[in-house]
Amino acid sequence: MQELDPGVMLAVLLEMMGIWFWILGALALCGLTGFGWIIVRERGLSSGRLVRSQAFALLAGAAALVLMAHVTKSGFTDAGGPIDWLLIVAIFAGGWIGGTILIYAAMGWWRFMPGQERLVALITRLRPQPAA
Amino acid sequence: MGAAGLAAGGLVSACAPAPERVQTSAHIVIAGAGAAGLTAASRLAQRLDGARITIIDPRVRHLYQPGFTLIAAGLQPARYSVSRTASYLPRDVNWIEAGVAEFDPDANTVVTSTGQRVRYDYLFAAVGIDLDYGAIEGMDTSLIGQNGLGSVYHSPEAAEATWRSLDRFAETGGEALFLRPATEMKCAGAPLKYTFIVDDILRRRGTRSRSALTYAAHNNVLFSVPIVSEKVRMLYQDRAVDTLYGHVLKSIDPGARRAVFDTPGGEVERAYDFINVIPPMRAAAALRNSPLAWTSGPYAFDGWAEVDRYTLRHVRFPNVFVVGDATGVPKGKTAASVKWQVPVAIDHLAAELAGTQSDSRYDGYTSCPLITRLGRAMLVEFDYQDNLTPSFPGVIAPLEELWISWVMKTIALKPTYVSMLRGEA
């Protein structure tokens, strides 16, 4: 093996993902920017929100695994060695971490969305009221 | 066909770092616009400044041959392997849409199928392989897909027809025959992996117990690299694939579903319900019948080009390089070989044009993602000396059936291949 070439890797990723390379890149950038912005604005991490976003992001990790199984036309029962399990963990972790950042940022932003109080009030009114 | 080196070694540069462009007014002709020809065109256009580059090939559509196995496994449609030659050609390359009828290296000339004589200063011969179905008595390629007759190599459409044939066979089970020719061939792992695929499909359909699978090797091994051959032998034993040695398909009766093999003990006839026919392969006729071919030795009979195995430069005509399938070297009829051969040949040409010398060497690297069932493959990479040359030593074991190798084959290989054609990988 000779040295890894970042230019080659970029060319292959662009060929592999097409327009999705830029869409996912933009999504990752938005998530990171939003995450950073909310941390600066709130001067720290909200542990409760972090736990909630981590819990929701488990679905994102699972979705990453399902997507990978779909595009490779295979399943995780095909794992044959330690490197396969590491890859599965890495795919799940990638989805989970990315999902956590996005969800945390979205939950933080939600509080500053114009008109969100009215939306919350509307949702509250639509909830079935307990019988008197 | 196999090209894990594209997926594995594909992320690794063959000639680093990026060299300076060379000023030249030379006319460089590339004969053939397959994987090797297009890669050479892209890299020459990047490397040379002022050169006139002409590529000669009549084929409008480009075929991604490593995808044929996936098509024949029912995982991809035929269009998966088909794209347009024009979409890979660099802007300033002149394309003559005709075949190469004759090489005349004494006159530094190529004659096209339309009679045009094209003079060159340097030639890249990348005319590839002829599939000699005619050498098998009774074989009719128009019958592929009917009556249990399959042939993955012929074309994407034939690979899809082979899948339809396999799909029907998998419902009932029966006798399945697999083989390879006694000639050099593209990706010698392809017939082995298709045997594994059929075994797996039969198991998934529940008809494996009603089936007998037989692999007929043309000599006394299953693969030219001893350690890989032994591993495949063990896997075949484990999967109950019967193995025959010294069997070369001589003739076939598609109607009666019978195949006749030449063996050391005489002709042997076998009945089948499904067969994957792989024809003898020879260098493309124009090269085979030209002074560029070997005149003696093991590569002379099928007309492979007489090149220095380390530089890909022709031994008798130093302004000629031969890359891709037509090279008369011990290994390397895969797209992975192309990826490693072309930069070496171009480095030598560029050095000559610049008045310097190149120490680039092609060590015979080639690779095969040897599918052992749907969802797993072994990433087999090796060189002229039959050494295993893993791209990720200690991480991806070359003889281990792994999902990661399958992932590379299914999603990373084609993008890497296309990047190679564009000179970016």
From TrEMBL, chain A:
<dbReference type="InterPro" id="IPR035308">
    <property type="entry name" value="DUF5368"/>
</dbReference>
<dbReference type="Pfam" id="PF17336">
    <property type="entry name" value="DUF5368"/>
</dbReference>
<protein>
    <submittedName>
        <fullName>Uncharacterized protein</fullName>
    </submittedName>
</protein>
From TrEMBL, chain B:
<dbReference type="InterPro" id="IPR023753">
    <property type="entry name" value="FAD/NAD-binding_dom"/>
</dbReference>
<dbReference type="InterPro" id="IPR015904">
    <property type="entry name" value="Sulphide_quinone_reductase"/>
</dbReference>
<dbReference type="GO" id="GO:0070221">
    <property type="term" value="P:sulfide oxidation, using sulfide:quinone oxidoreductase"/>
</dbReference>
<dbReference type="InterPro" id="IPR036188">
    <property type="entry name" value="FAD/NAD-bd_sf"/>
</dbReference>
<dbReference type="Pfam" id="PF07992">
    <property type="entry name" value="Pyr_redox_2"/>
</dbReference>
<dbReference type="GO" id="GO:0070224">
    <property type="term" value="F:sulfide:quinone oxidoreductase activity"/>
</dbReference>
<dbReference type="GO" id="GO:0071949">
    <property type="term" value="F:FAD binding"/>
</dbReference>
<protein>
    <submittedName>
        <fullName>Uncharacterized protein</fullName>
    </submittedName>
</protein>
